[in-house]
Write a structure and sequence with these properties.
The chain is built from 14 helices and five strands. It is an alpha/beta fold.
Length: 315
């Protein structure tokens, strides 16, 4: 049981640590913001948000290097796993959950872990973010291999859950990425690829769901999207691996085939019927002049890369 003296010491230690973080800094020039008009506050907030892409731009070489490393491993069957607490954890879960409908990935290929489990998506789970051991326990069920990637996400860069996830993964030979919003963070130091997007103090002191959250969302967008481009999940800027699971996506599938091929509606319907609705296969049957089974074989031999399959079909 923690004594009062120990609790007081821990509090003062944590407070001192937080006071060194840019994301926790107080901005006296905004101390009267609640007295401004709604439009004035909105203008200030919009101007703050506009600085985020510039901060991300400074880290693009690091982001690109991390993506190439992720794509190389995923091409061998590795998984991409995000781990974070609070807002950072939710952003990871969000990014992971968008991959199956967008890129037709299996839910096990891109995974989001949040400290405290699924219920923490909507309700705060007290103390979950403070445990490195909890992160290690959550990752143990994945039996990590060197082809896997674990991305620790934490605005402060000190969250024990995110740091613990990276440390556990690195000890098992997996690729590790640490995404934070403070310089010289423990998270970046623990990871093979440290990405630190320093967005500066928040409009509301310490509310890292704002600029820091936006920065993390932008980087996670890049990690998953560009990795999938590298893996052949797109053809140009078309989502040719989209999973048509509802009417909107079925209509989008037909539009993608039309944009890629310029074919008539009748040709598109025939191609989709011959390929069980698979957009990439349908495009290959039209542009490559092959039947459904041949399209499937060529894509399999090309590891799903449509351009390579097209070259093989016309070669």
């Amino acid at each position: 049981m923690t004594s009062t003296a120990d609790a007081s010491s821990n509090y003062h230690s944590l407070r001192a640590e937080l006071e060194t973080l840019t994301t926790e800094a107080f901005r006296p020039e905004l101390s009267q913001i609640d007295r401004l008009s709604t439009l004035e506050i909105a203008k200030i907030m919009n101007a703050e948000d506009a600085t985020v892409p510039t901060a991300v731009a400074t880290q693009l070489p690091r982001i690109a290097a991390a993506i190439d490393a992720v794509a190389e491993r995923m091409s061998r069957g590795g998984r991409l796993i995000y781990a974070g607490a609070g807002t950072a954890g939710r952003l990871g879960v969000l990014d992971a959950s968008e991959c199956p409908p967008t890129f037709n990935t299996d839910p096990s290929e891109v995974v989001g872990l949040i400290a405290g489990g699924p219920s923490a998506m909507v309700t705060s789970v007290e103390g979950a973010e403070d445990s490195k051991e909890l992160a290690a326990a959550d990752l143990k069920e994945f039996s990590l291999t060197p082809d896997d990637t674990v991305v620790g996400v934490s605005a402060s860069g000190r969250t024990p859950y995110a740091v613990g996830a990276v440390e556990h993964a690195r000890a098992r030979g997996a690729l590790t990425i640490g995404l934070s919003c403070n310089a010289h963070s423990a998270l970046a130091a623990a990871a093979e690829h440290g990405i630190e997007i320093v967005v500066g103090p928040e409009l509301l002191t310490g509310s890292t769901r704002l600029k820091a959250g936006t920065a993390q969302k932008l980087v996670l967008n890049m990690l998953s999207t560009i990795t999938m481009i590298r893996l052949g999940k797109t053809y140009g800027n078309l989502m040719v691996d989209v999973r048509a699971s509802n009417e909107k996506l079925r209509a989008r599938s037909r539009r993608i085939v039309a944009l890629a091929t310029g074919a008539s509606d009748e040709e598109i319907e025939q191609a989709l019927a011959a390929t069980d609705g698979e957009v990439k296969n349908a495009i290959l049957t039209i542009l490559g002049g092959v039947d459904g089974p041949t399209a499937a074989r060529l894509l399999e031999e090309s590891d799903g890369h449509l351009r390579a399959a097209l070259a093989a079909s016309t070669g």
